[in-house]
Amino acid sequence: MQSLVDAAELKLEFDAQLDKAHADTVEMKAAFDKSTVDAVEAKNVFDAQLGKAAADAAEMKAGYDETTAQALKMKLEYDEQAAQLQKAQADNAEITLQRAQAEVEANLVKEALNNQQEALQNLMDEHAKLVHQRDVLHAELQLALNNYTPKAVIDAGTPADKMLSMLTDLLDGNVPSIQDILYVQSAILESLDIYQPIDLGKQLMAAKSMDVSAT
């Protein structure tokens, strides 16, 4: 009898433990299911955050690529402008050099023209003086010829004087006389000293004879 009582108590105790184990199992399953649901939700949140991060990274990369392209474009434009500026500076330097050379050449030409004008003016002044002297001498000579009647013609001039006189006549537009040309030609052909008068003694003797005859 006692054995049956003990067996009944053991069975009750076993059933109680079995019920507790079942309850623990249900609770553990519920906790596992909740953990699974939480894990799925966490995975969904992570996947969403990962997708957003990937989208943000792609957007940032696109912005970076666009910024890089714009920076490269700006660098190319800057390099082109720098090259144009350098070329313009070189052209300006060349133009400045050419302008300076042109100014130097213009100053040289101007100085040469001034020198030529000064020389021409000096020649004109000298020519005017010579013309004035010629006119004065011509007037004096004409006055002397009008007031003097020679008794005899004596030519004390040298062949050199004759040649200078002939050249003066040619410069004045006058033709030298045949007598003067023959006189100079004879002196040159006879190799005479062109700075000494020719036959001055004979001319003086002839003039003296003419004076004696006149008396």
TrEMBL record:
Keywords of the record: Coiled coil
Coiled-coil parts of chain: 71-133
Name used for this protein in its record: Phosphodiesterase
Organism: Haematococcus lacustris
